[in-house]
Structure formats: C-alpha cells, structure tokens
Amino acid sequence: MAHETYGEAAQAADRYGAVQDDLELFEDDEFDPFAADVDQPDDEAEDDQITDLPMMSELPESHRVRGRYDKANYASAQDALRELLRGNPARRQVLVAIIDACNDPHTTSEVAQVVEGVQRDNLSVYTPLSLCRMLETAGALTAQVPESSEEEVDEDGDGYLEVKEPREATWTATDAGLEVVSELREGNEVRELVGSASESPYRDIYLRLLDFCAEQGRSAKEVGALIDDDPLVQNPRRYGAHFIDGMEATGALVWRDKGWHTTELGRRFLAAERDEAAVAVVAE
C-alpha cells in the first residue's frame, strides 16, 4: 500500500518469516490424525468410546442438561410444547403428527414410518428419534425402553456379553401433549394472530392468501405476485413471505407437493371468517 512505511513492511516480512518457520516444523513431522494417542493408555481410550445413548428419562437428574424447550423451564409441559411448536414452525406438522400417532404406543420404527409420510416433501435433518426426544423433553411423549436382550457366552475361557437385539423405545403421548394437539385443532392461534394489533390491518391479505392457496399449491413467487403490490402492504412494507410465515406458524398453511397449501384448519378459519362477514352484511 502507498501509505505503508518501510518499518511496517519490515515487520510484516518478519511475521511472514516466523509463520513459514512454524509451517516447516509441521512439515517435518509425519502426522497421522488416526494414530493412537501415545499419552493415553488403551484401556482409557476404550472407555471414551460411547456405545449407546440413553433416553432422557434414563438419565439421572444430576446429568441432565436443560434445553430451551425442557418442560422444567416452564410452568407446565403444555407451555413447553407450545413454545417448541412456535419456535419450529417448519417441523410443527410432523411433531403434531407424532403426538397424534402416539396416542397409541408406537415404537421408534413405527414413528419413523409416520415421519416419512409427513415429511415426504419437507425433509429435515432431524431423525425420527431426535424428534421423539425433543417431544419427550417438552413433556409431550414418554419413552419406555426394554431391557437389553443379553446372553452370556463363554468362548476360550473368556466370558463376555453378546447383545442379541438393539433396544428400541416405545413412545406414548402424554395427556399434556394430547391436550395441546386438541387446542391446535380449534384454530385459536390463527384467530389470535389475525386479530392481533400488529396483524389485524392485514386481515384481508391473510384471507386472500388462504383462499389463493386453497385452490392449489402456490409457490412463494406466486404469493408475492398476489400480495406484494397491494396498497395495504406498502407502509409499513410487508411481503408475501411475511404472511406465509404467519400462516405456517399457526398451522393454516403447509408446504406440500412443491407448493403452499391451505390446511384443513386454515379452510375452517377461512369459512368461519366468511360466515361472520356475511352475518355482518345482513345486519347492516
């Protein structure tokens, strides 16, 4: 650089030379990242290997780390589950489906089939077991883990335990979980959002969105073309994505078959709003 002094340039060169010397030290060593740690005995290294992860319910209280949606952080398991669903709108549908399915006990494998069906068009990094553990932590599911099927076998005089079958948990919905799912079906969250002080000015926009997506699946671009130029969303500025997010978070919209679709809950809300509007017109 033009303003760089000779002294600054010299200091930079010295630092570069020091780095080069350090690199040469590493180049001289034959480093194998997979080599055994010579400072750690073999028996200690083996002890560090985790062979199985317990269910949350199996851990002693002193070893449990409370997550954001742990029921212990809330006044009730219902509140924890509501926050979990509110904080994960994209996973809301599958989480609710798991709770609903586990009204009758389901093994992890059976839950996986439910998850696969729901998430066919909305894949997730969460495994079915991870989703179940999230719900267990929030108090929406309980897990029953059978004893390991072990048989002692003695070969060449050395006794050891051979695990015949992996343990698979059975998941059952709690009363708290089923209560929240029942509330969600009533559509209170949609009404509360659309009737809130910040969103009530956009009531007609929400209704148009639900009506638009009830006809067929719509892309975000199509929703933007419907909403973005409307005078209602110019000041303060709002875009189609804002209204999609609100309806997804409350269960009125869902992503399926590469498009946004109005759910049954959204259709009921839309019909109820139309009925109220018709009554108001007659009253006038």
- The sequence of SSEs as H and E is HHHHEHHEEEEHHHHHEEH
Number of domains: 2
**Regions with little confidence, pLDDT below 50 for 5+ residues:** 1-10, 21-29, 41-53
Tell me the distance between the termini: 77 Å
Which term fits the overall shape?
elongated
- How many E strands? 7
Overall mean pLDDT:
80
**What characterizes the major β-sheet?**
3 strands, antiparallel
- CATH architecture heading of the largest domain: Orthogonal Bundle
The secondary structure category is mainly alpha
Q: Work out the radius of gyration.
A: 28 Å
Spatial ordering of strands, largest sheet: 1-5-2
Short account of what is shown:
By secondary structure, the chain is mainly α.
Strand and helix map with partners:
Layout (H helix, E strand, L loop, with lengths): L5 H23 L13 H6 L29 H11 L4 H10 L4 E2 H11 L9 H11 L2 E4 L4 E7 L2 E8 L4 E4 L1 H11 L2 H7 L8 H13 L4 H8 L12 H10 L3 E4 L2 E4 L1 H20 L1
Antiparallel strand pairs: 1-5, 2-5, 3-4, 6-7
Helix pairs in contact: 3-7, 4-5, 9-12
Features:
mainly alpha; 12% strand; disordered N terminus; Arc Repressor Mutant, subunit A; elongated; two-stranded antiparallel sheet; 284 residues
Describe this structure in words.
By secondary structure, the protein is mostly helical. It folds into two domains: 56-181, Arc Repressor Mutant, subunit A; 187-283, Arc Repressor Mutant, subunit A, CATH 1.10.10. The chain is 50% helix and 12% strand. The chain has a three-stranded antiparallel β-sheet with strand order 1-5-2. A two-stranded antiparallel ribbon has the order 3-4. The chain has a two-stranded antiparallel sheet with strand order 6-7. α3 (77-87) packs across α7 (175-185). The longest helix has 23 residues, at 6-28. The chain is elongated and about 80 Å long.
